[in-house]
Amino acid sequence: MAAYLNNEWFVAIFCTALSALVGWPFAAILGLPVVLEMALVQYRRLLFTLLNYSFLSGGVLVILLVIVDTFFYGKPVLAPLNIVLYNVLSSHGPDLYGVEPLSYYLKNLILNWNVACVLTPLSVPVAGLAFSSLRSLRDETATVPLG
After folding, report:
1. pLDDT, tens digit, 9 for 90 and up, residues 27-61
2. d(Cα 95, Cα 112) in Å, to the nearest integer?
3. Where are the domains of the chain?
4. Residues 98, 83: Cα–Cα separation, whole Å
5. CA dist., res. 129 & res. 135, Å (int)
6. How far apart are CA 121 and CA 132, in angstroms?
7. Which residues contact 52 (CB under 8 A, 6 or more apart)?
């Protein structure tokens, strides 16, 4: 996002492609602001750049992924494509998650985020206390004469 805000288009596109292809394929949605800016807002100046950087980033990463995945799986594989095909286009993929009762998710939350679960209810009062302390400190220093 920082690269996008600094108009560093190649870095923004490459990092989006990297996160979607090497990480989680559905993270590609995070590149939507970059695509909208380049393809719709500044399309006369940046559309060719968008296409060029996208094919370059995607092509290099896909080639490297296929090499690595093929080595480890022993057959030609593109793992991110399999994830999308299974979860989006198959009949049983979308049913895997979100079908458990609420108690299952609460137990998982407590098991995986045990310390954070305990501290979370304290975050709002602590933030309020910090804000009021900083405000009173600012008010005190504003009334001290200089010199």
Report:
1. 999 999 999 998 999 888 999 999 999 999 999 99
2. 23
3. 2-89, 102-142
4. 17
5. 10
6. 18
7. none
